Amino acid sequence: GRTWTTIEAPWGRAGYLLESRGSTTPWRMALRTPTFANVQVLEAVLPGTRVDDVEATIASLGWTLGDLDK
């Protein structure tokens, strides 16, 4: 079977996928964290941003470094 669920996380909504092929251990598990979605907007936001403002722009998006590598 397969199930997808979401929970409210500090920076948005987190999604979890769990898939099984009928055994006692999961076949696939996937996470979609709010940081993953929030950082994707950088491609649209950063072009044209002054170099002095890049750090503040990135910091304002709401992301967690530990979340980013999932």
How would you characterize this protein structure?
- This protein has 70 residues and is of the alpha+beta class.
- It has one domain.
- Helices cover 30% and strands 30% of the residues.
- The protein has four helices and three strands; from the N terminus they run E-E-E-H-H-H-H.
- It has helices at 34-40, 42-45, 54-59, 65-68; strands at residues 2-9, 12-19, 28-32.
- It has a three-stranded antiparallel β-sheet.
- The protein is elongated and about 55 Å long.
- The two termini are 23 Å apart.
- The model has no long low-confidence stretch (mean pLDDT 88).
Which structural traits does this protein have?
single chain, 70 residues, alpha+beta
Widest sheet, order of strands: 1-2-3
Shape: elongated
* Helix percentage: 25-40%
The ordered H/E elements are EEEHHHH
The chain-level structural class is: alpha+beta
Low-confidence stretches: none
What is the domain tally? 1
Into which percentage range does the β-strand content fall? 25-35%
Query: What is the typical, i.e. mean, pLDDT?
Result: 88
Number of helices: 4
Q: Report the C-alpha radius of gyration, rounded.
A: 16 Å
Q: How far is the N terminus from the C terminus?
A: 23 Å
Main sheet summary: 3 strands, antiparallel
Q: Give the strand tally.
A: 3
